[in-house]
Amino acid sequence: MGSFEIIIDNNDKRLYIIIEIKMEDFKKLFIIGLSISFLTGNLFAQSKPFWKKLKYGFEYKGGICWGGNYLKSAQSSKCITSLDSWYGINSIEGSVFFPQSNDKYIKVGFDYGWANLSNIAGVPDKIMESPYEWYYLLYTASDEWQIRKYSINIERITKSYISFGLEIAYSEGKTTEFLYMSDIQEYNWTLFESALVTRKCFGGGAFIKFQWQRRLTNNIHINPFVITKISAVSEISNNVPWPYSREGILKIHYSGIYAGMNLTFGDY
């Protein structure tokens, strides 16, 4: 390490301090200085706020779902392979990605789905004897249905092409239902009343997603994907205005195959 000297000159009464540093020692001091600067920089650097670590997404997907006993075509056979046993549904989703370690995220999505169907089996007809035992009641429904689905999807995202998720779903099936009356002897049915009925359903399921990430910019990715899903909801209540409302009869299946596109925004 160089030399350090203190010299006192008695003639002019001055104090001289001489510091001699060799070139190799200067290099060592420079490296030590860089190391200290790097360590203190890391020590005092502030981590990003939590909201800046989040990523956000928007996606659209369309699916082909098994209709079950209610949303299949009215002319469908009972064979699951028949095209009439399936129906189409569309949905959009907004999502937030919560970071975990090693580039893993928990994605929480809020999904809205819709399907407008016609010529489907719907709620089956049912003939019932009236409380007064002198006429019959016939419950029947239109073959046109509006399906609305609201769900929360929770998905674990990694760098892999495959991810797994769960969904919790609330759905509404809307159609016009009719009440007919007939005397016991002649079965001449007369429309007594009709009403727009909403059958509310609740349930959920699980899915597997296969996706391919494509970078558009440093902060935007576009991800085409395919999903296979097993999911269903069952009726929990309805607003049928007549007695014998047949609660709990509707079941909507969302099991099927979906394809879509996801846009993701955030730091990578």
Write a structural description:
- By secondary structure, the protein is mainly beta.
- The protein has two domains: 3-43, no CATH class; 48-265, Porin (Beta Barrel), CATH 2.40.160.
- Helix content is 10%, strand content 58%.
- The chain has an eight-stranded antiparallel β-barrel with strand order 3-4-5-8-9-10-12-14.
- The two termini are 46 Å apart.
- Mean pLDDT is 79; it is low at 12-19 and 26-46.
Which descriptors would you attach to this protein?
268 residues, mainly beta, Porin, 2 domains, elongated
Short structural summary:
The protein is mostly beta strands and 268 residues long. The chain contains 2 helices and 14 strands; from the N terminus they run ββααββββββββββββ.
The SSE order reads: EEHHEEEEEEEEEEEE
The geometry reads as elongated
Task: State the helical fraction.
Answer: under 10%
- Profile the largest sheet: 8 strands, antiparallel, barrel
